[in-house]
Amino acid sequence: MAVYLTEEKKKELFAEYGGDENNTGSAEGQVALFTYRIKMLAQHLEENKKDHSCRRALLTLVGKRRRLLKYIAKKDIVKYRELIEKLGIRK
To answer: For this UniProt entry, which segments traverse the membrane (predicted)?
Structure first.
C-alpha cells in the first residue's frame, strides 16, 4: 500500500461513500478510493515528470474508475450523478 494511503484514510473513504467502513466491495466506495489515489498520483507526477511506472499506474486506475462509473450509471443513474458531483469528477 502506498505511503499516502493509510488504513484510516481508506476506512474513512469507504465509510463515507460505501455505507460502512468494512464494505470495501461497494462500487461507490471503490470509485472514491480510485479518485483519491488518482489525485495523489497526479500530484506526484507533477513533481516527478519522468516517473513512467507511476504514469502507467495512473492510466490503469483511470480506466478502472471509468469502467466502474459506467457500471454504476447503468445500474442507477441517480446514484451515479450524486457520486460524480460529490467527488468532483467532471463528466
So the answer is: none
